[in-house]
């Protein structure tokens, strides 16, 4: 029996077990040493703007150590850099990097499926061109914030083809580099290709982009000829609100609403509507769904106390929205409120109801 078909309490425990496994892996001596060695050789700070879809696991698809890439996840990969909280997080990341003498690579992703349009991004009604257009809008906003010369922050639009886990790097105009069209023998030519595609990319940022592309080339090659379950249907049964969900990369399991938009009620309502439809179509059992709120913290004391307060606020806010917009579904809601100790990625449950 797959996780989607289990009773709700078993599904919740399986999810929490996954978070514990993720923290154990992240905090292992080997993983810590891998991060330290990687950052010593490739100090460019890497941020990824992406959809909440669990198939889009950039560290896995690029064979990058966990903790190197800072993710920003939201329904549909829809962002606006004018959102106050999001803008503050991005600028704080950039300030920290530049004070350390490092550049920032901001990867702005959209996703689609070559094999079946309906496996694309539901946030854009599976319209890959619309998703690409939005990614380019985010790139233009990043240029307004950090400069059109791209000397310090390089905003790079990348597609992610979910059938083969291939990155598509977009340059100026219609130029692009599709990793699915290359073979392992092309690895030695990647630097020349990237230089031609993005001639204004600083050399240090290009140097630190290349390992991601090389890793993706190896990953894509390893999947050629391998039968994969592509998970066409929506079977989500979790609504996650907040941040700290790095452990959640299971396809069609969770709908993640990042705390970035000034109006969180709209994406929360949309997520609840998807889960309601999943129950009505018998894609998931109707015995319940999980609302999980989480906020990361760095240090004990005030920082953790603020995270606790924020997580409780997110739980209550989402609960009110779901009760208002989907009162029948709300009766099947189970809640968990948590904080995440970010240095260890350890999820700490605060309460449930």
Which key features would you list for this structure?
353 residues, alpha/beta, Beta-carbonic Anhydrase, Chain A, 2 domains, 6-stranded mixed sheet, 5-stranded mixed sheet, 11 strands, Carboxysome shell carbonic anhydrase
Overview of the molecule:
- The chain is an alpha/beta fold and 353 residues long.
- It contains 10 helices and 11 strands.
- The strands form 2 sheets. Strands 2-1-3-4-5-6 form a 6-stranded mixed sheet, sandwiched between helices. Strands 8-7-9-10-11 form a 5-stranded mixed sheet, with helices on both faces.
- A hairpin with a 4-residue loop joins strand 10 and strand 11.
- Helix 6 crosses helix 7 (203-223).
- The radius of gyration is 20 Å and the shape is globular.
- The mean pLDDT is 92.
Overview in brief:
This is Carboxysome shell carbonic anhydrase. This protein is of the alpha/beta class and 353 residues long.
How many β-strands, per DSSP?
Answer: 11
Query: Largest beta sheet: what is the strand line-up?
Result: 2-1-3-4-5-6
Q: What general outline do the C-alpha atoms trace?
A: globular
> Largest sheet at a glance?
6 strands, mixed
Q: How much is the average pLDDT?
A: 92
The ordered H/E elements are HHEHEHEHEEEHHEEHEHHEE
Share of residues in strands: 15-25%
Structural class estimated from helices and strands: alpha/beta
Distance between the termini: 26 Å
Number of helices: 10
- Spans where pLDDT lies below 50 across 5 or more residues: none
Instruction: Give the helix level as a range of percent.
Output: 40-55%
CATH class identity of the largest domain: Alpha Beta
Number of domains: 2
Please state the CA-atom Rg, rounded to the nearest Å. 20 Å
CATH architecture level-2 label of the largest domain? 3-Layer(aba) Sandwich
CATH topology value of the largest domain: Beta-carbonic Anhydrase, Chain A
């Amino acid at each position: 029996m797959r996780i989607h078909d289990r009773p709700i309490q078993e599904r919740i425990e399986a999810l929490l077990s996954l978070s514990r496994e993720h923290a154990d892996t992240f905090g292992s001596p080997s993983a810590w040493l891998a991060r330290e060695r990687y950052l010593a050789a490739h100090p460019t700070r890497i941020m990824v703007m992406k959809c909440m879809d669990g198939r889009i696991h950039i560290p896995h698809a690029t064979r990058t150590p966990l903790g190197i890439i800072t993710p920003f996840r939201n329904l549909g990969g829809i962002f606006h850099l004018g959102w106050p909280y999001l803008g503050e997080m991005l600028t704080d990341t950039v300030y920290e990097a530049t004070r350390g003498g490092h550049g920032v690579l901001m990867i702005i992703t959209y996703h689609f499926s070559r094999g079946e349009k309906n496996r694309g991004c539901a946030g854009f009604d599976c319209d890959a061109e619309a998703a690409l257009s939005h990614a380019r809008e985010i790139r233009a906003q990043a240029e307004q914030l950090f400069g059109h010369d791209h000397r310090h922050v390089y905003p790079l639009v990348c597609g992610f083809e979910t059938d083969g886990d291939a990155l598509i790097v977009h340059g100026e105009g219609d130029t692009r580099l599709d990793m699915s069209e290359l073979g392992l023998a092309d690895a030695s030519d990647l630097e020349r290709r990237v230089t031609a595609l993005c001639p204004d990319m600083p050399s240090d940022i290009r140097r630190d982009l290349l390992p991601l592309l090389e890793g993706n080339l190896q990953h894509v090659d390893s999947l050629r000829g391998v039968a994969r379950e592509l998970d066409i249907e929506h079977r989500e049964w979790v609504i996650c609100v907040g941040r700290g969900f790095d452990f959640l990369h299971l396809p069609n399991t969770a709908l993640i609403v990042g705390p970035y938009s000034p109006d969180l009620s709209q994406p929360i309502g949309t997520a609840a509507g998807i889960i309601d439809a999943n129950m009505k179509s018998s894609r998931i059992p109707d015995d319940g769904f999980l609302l999980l709120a989480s906020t990361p913290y760095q240090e004990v004391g005030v920082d953790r106390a603020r995270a606790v307060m924020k997580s409780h606020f997110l739980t209550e806010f989402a609960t009110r929205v779901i009760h208002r917009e989907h009162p029948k579904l709300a009766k099947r809601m189970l809640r968990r409120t948590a904080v995440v100790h970010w240095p260890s990625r350890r999820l700490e449950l605060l309460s449930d109801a």
